[in-house]
Amino acid sequence: MYGLEQGGLVNWFFSLLKIPSVNPPGRERLMTDFLPTVLTGWGGAVRAQEVRDGRCNLLAEWNFGPGPVLMFNTHLDVNNPEGQKWETDPFSPAERDGRIYARGAADAKGSLAAMTWACRRLAANPEGLHGKIVFAGVMGEESGGEGTLSLVRQGSVHADGAVVGEPTGLEVAVANKGTFIRRIVFKGRSAHSGEAHLGENAVIPAAGFVLAAERANAVLRQKSNRYVGSASLTVTLINGGNLQNTVPDRCSVTFDRRLIPGETHDSAREELQSLLGQEGLSRHVESLEELVASFPCESPAESAVVTASLGAAREAWNPDARLRGFSAGSDMSKLVLLGKIPSVILGPGKLAQAHIPDEFVEMREVEAAVKVYELLARRFLTGK
Q1: % of the chain exceeding 70 in pLDDT
Q2: Spatial distance between the Cα atoms of 167 and 351, rounded to a whole number of angstroms
Q3: What CATH superfamily classification does 4-176+296-382 receive?
């Protein structure tokens, strides 16, 4: 079915998919033990950067002389499939009708396979290249992005542009939303429901918050970004009471606030405190817990990595490709906001396939991703 080059890529992709680098609990070491020998054989200068507890980022560099530095960044960990029902073993990749089924096929070992294969091709034919390619395979992306965060904070890599491998269907994303997810516990006073007047029902202020959040969401949805769409506030979980005949003294509400570029966690906190105060709910709050926090960001459309990415995507995949946004969080925000590195999110596969049973990616997209990444790098390192 595949020619020699494509057959090699398929075998390479399968070898990565067979490695159960699941997170939790964080088994990226299976990848960082496997990759160095291969990448060194492809001409890369490889080193590991420990983040914590023996879990490492893996860096490989290909130096073509003075010039700009391009980073390929993607994660080594995959979401743990435990408890899911798969038709086949999630770590025994299977091909059906041109699709590759396995955990991580879309998120994000398709990007990992294509990025490293593109580096192999660039090293084999470096004519006209000036600068450096840095491949950063990072740990802990599925648990908040601590690998890339460590990479940036330690100053391990300087780059003039970065490509973050996540499933975008090979569309070029230059912005992503941020997350501000919190759990509020509202307090009351327990009593027998036959004498409910002696208690204070914690569900009532919780319900008040749910209704207030819906009104606030209607206002937030009027705030929009051209790439990622609107901001939002969504109540996702509510839990109160423990007996059917007892006034509940606790009720928790979890909400998911999606931030768009230009919004900050500080502004979201102020917005929340104002909402609780205006509705008279503050006195009922027992605790407020942060569950997930990630940052919104946007790269300048005129930056070199954006123009190189869009040109490569149009040439190798879709002549009508346009810039878009990424609706989930990603490591791009750490590179852009903390590392000050203009970045894009670009990779094979669909976000809708991430984390679900029978995850898959179209093999033709992985093959096309190799071409896109290679063309992107050649444009970036030649200035064309």
Answers
A1: 98
A2: 5
A3: Zn peptidases (3.40.630.10)
